[in-house]
User: Which sequence fits this backbone?
């Protein structure tokens, strides 16, 4: 089940301090909209709609990041499903950061949002 | 036993001197084995009654041949005792032993009776002791000093982390980690001992050919493959019933020179192990927890009631046990600035991404990536929660000059 979720965000209970510096929702919405635009222009569909093999050939995935992904798959014992999902999430993180290339930091951040195996 | 929070089942009352007063030197282990196994299978006939029978009849064979007199040795024999005796008499002890040994061969196991030289020495020093045990794995695992590391099945991240650190430290000091293979603290302790290159012994609440809990079957196999052993009081092929945790826990305490309770709420089975260790006059340690943590109430009470010594650090525990601690190998690894900084923070205190962000001012994305890298290198783990803890490997790096 958990393997079919794209994002798994671990959160602390909300607190009232530190809300001032948060990015306003309108600005986040604008970033999301522009990321969608970029994705449609590039591949004719959203990253979330890329199926397994197409996600593998994710545009802008360099050879170093591909080999990093292979390494992380082994180190973190990822399933093929998780590998594909994390790649799509990494592509999205790169899009939100307005980066043409998917970089190692994007991939590692994407992997952070993977569901933990049940203890 | 008074003062230990074990409402509910208690270990059977102490009967000091039952076994120690017996002379068994004249008995031949091979000759007696079938009778000992048969007697140990009689329902209601525990180690105390077994010793009484031996004292009365001189040998297992004589006791068996005395027939219904076996019932006289029991204070209140349950109704199924007489029935089981009649059934066992039809096949006879040698056939019963042959059947058990056939099953033992399938798991490379053996019968160990008090008469065998290989019977675990620490258990031999406990009284009363189980007359017959079933064992798989290495007999050498019983020779070094054992320390029991036990605790709740519903362990918190704190409990798991403590169990791993303690077992790791004990294993590196050359001590054998003894536990019950249960989920939670027990499993964490066994796994950490093996990962540290040490040896571990598991006492099962089930027969050795039917490892319980099933989720730890691989762990049990790993334990045997790394020079450890599985031990059970139940014969192989014994039908799965309610696992007998109280008797299992007495064996754990008996095998160990000291028992460490890592995390235990009130009424935890781990407190029965502690009670048994107190009873056997072995050392008892408990890891303290926050005073408002349900999961640590049993441990905190053991300390408050002076039934257990407090564990303030894994290294301190090993020193307290009188073992010289060797040098830890330093793992040198190249970390980026953000990764090194995150690890340094975690070594001071486990933290969530949000806490790290508040402390360091790094963006959560950067921290998330750094944590994945630390996880991939086995330097940090979240145990499935929001808070990240440094692993053993990370602590060793942290300690290196």
Assistant:
């Amino acid at each position: 089940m958990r393997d079919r979720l794209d994002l798994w965000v671990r959160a602390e209970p909300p607190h009232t301090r530190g809300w001032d510096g948060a990015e306003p929702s309108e600005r986040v919405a604008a970033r999301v909209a522009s990321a969608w635009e970029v994705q449609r222009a590039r591949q004719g569909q959203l990253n979330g709609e890329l199926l397994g093999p197409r996600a593998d050939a994710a545009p802008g995935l360099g050879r170093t990041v591909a080999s990093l992904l292979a390494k992380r798959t082994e180190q973190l014992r990822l399933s093929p499903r998780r590998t594909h999902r994390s790649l799509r999430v990494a592509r999205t993180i790169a899009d939100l950061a307005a980066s043409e290339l998917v970089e190692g930091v994007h991939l590692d951040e994407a992997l952070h949002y993977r569901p933990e195996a049940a203890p | 036993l008074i003062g230990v929070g074990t409402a509910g089942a208690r270990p059977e009352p102490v009967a000091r001197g039952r076994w120690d007063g017996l002379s068994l030197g004249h008995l031949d282990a091979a000759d007696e084995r079938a009778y000992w196994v048969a007697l140990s299978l009689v329902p209601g006939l525990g180690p105390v009654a077994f010793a009484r029978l031996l004292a009365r009849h001189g040998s297992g064979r004589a006791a068996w041949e005395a027939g219904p007199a076996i019932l006289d040795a029991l204070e209140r024999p349950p109704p199924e005792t007489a029935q089981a005796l009649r059934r066992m008499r039809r096949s006879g002890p040698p056939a019963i032993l042959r059947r058990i040994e056939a099953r033992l061969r399938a798991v490379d196991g053996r019968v160990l009776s008090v008469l065998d030289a290989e019977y675990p020495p620490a258990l031999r020093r406990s009284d009363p002791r189980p007359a017959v045990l079933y064992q798989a794995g290495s007999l050498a695992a019983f020779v070094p000093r054992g320390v029991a590391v036990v605790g709740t099945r519903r362990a918190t991240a704190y409990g798991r982390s403590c169990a791993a650190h303690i077992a790791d430290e004990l294993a590196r000091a050359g001590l054998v980690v003894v536990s019950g293979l249960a989920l939670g603290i027990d499993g964490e302790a066994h796994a950490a001992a093996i990962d540290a290159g040490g040896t571990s012994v598991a006492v099962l609440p089930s027969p050795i050919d039917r490892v319980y809990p099933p989720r730890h079957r691989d762990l049990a196999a790993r334990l045997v493959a790394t020079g450890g052993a599985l031990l059970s009081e139940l014969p192989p092929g014994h039908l799965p019933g309610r696992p007998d945790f109280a008797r299992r826990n007495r064996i754990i305490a008996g095998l160990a020179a000291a028992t460490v309770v890592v995390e235990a709420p009130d009424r935890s089975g781990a407190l029965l192990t502690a009670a048994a260790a107190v009873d056997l006059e072995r050392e008892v340690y408990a890891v303290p927890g926050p005073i408002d943590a349900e999961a640590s109430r049993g441990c905190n009470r053991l300390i408050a009631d002076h039934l257990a010594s407090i564990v303030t650090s894994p290294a301190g525990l090993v020193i307290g046990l009188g073992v010289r601690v060797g040098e830890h190998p330093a793992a040198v690894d190249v970390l980026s600035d953000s990764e090194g900084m995150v690890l340094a923070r975690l070594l001071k205190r486990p933290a969530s991404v949000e806490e790290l962000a508040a402390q360091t001012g790094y963006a959560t994305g950067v921290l998330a990536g750094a944590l994945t890298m630390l996880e991939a290198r086995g330097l940090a783990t979240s145990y499935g929660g929001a808070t990240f803890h440094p692993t053993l490997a990370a602590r060793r790096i942290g300690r290196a000059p």
